[in-house]
Amino acid sequence: MTSEDGRRGRGEVREEAILGATLGLLAEIGYDRMSMDAIALRARASKATIYRRWSGKAELVVTAVERHTGQRMIERPDPGNLRADLLGTLQAMRDGLTEQDAGLLLGLLTAMHHDEDLARTVRARMVDDKRQAFDPAIDRAVARGELPAAINRALLAELSSAMLFSRAFVTGEPLDDTFLTGLVDDVLLPLLRHQAGDV
């Protein structure tokens, strides 16, 4: 192993320690009461080390939550039709959502209401990712001629995310494949067809 590999390995271990300390404190005392000093102390890292990687508490917390929840969507192969593509996207979103720690996510959303820096970072990093979740499916449908290019992608993603979030954290109703199939057949496809007819 080269010295560069060793430095990279130590850097990754240090980063994981910082992100782990951040998640631990976030769960224990919440975003508002958590400080960079407390994170550094728990991670046994200097604040200078933390600030070399993250600009502040908001960016650090969002990175930690993203890493913990596997936030970013992994692009899947083309199933060949829009319906199957939408269903696959929803299944990936559902799987990511149900693996998340509800307490962490709800605490983050609550803190966003009175911390503009956190709200801005969450919107830029996490909300925008959700809005882009359907882009591959829509791009493929446009290329196949199933949809026109002028589709309201943000509405599609916002509606889907709201319904999944409601079931996962509010109503407690099943987020099974039967629900996802109904969401595609009864809501998303009619919405897209309506939009296509208006274009």
Molecular structure report:
This protein has 199 residues and is mainly alpha-helical. Helices cover 75% and strands 0% of the residues. The longest helix is centred in the first third of the chain and has 27 residues, at 3-29. It is elongated.
In short:
This protein is an all-alpha fold and 199 residues long.
Q: Describe the global form.
A: elongated
**Total of helices:** 10
Number of strands: 0
Structural class: mainly alpha
Give the SSE layout:
Blueprint lengths: L2 H27 L6 H8 L3 H7 L3 H13 L12 H17 L3 H11 L3 H16 L3 H10 L8 H19 L5 H22 L1
Helix pairs in contact: 1-2, 1-4, 4-7, 5-8, 5-9, 5-10, 6-7
Keywords:
10 helices, 199 residues, elongated, disordered N terminus
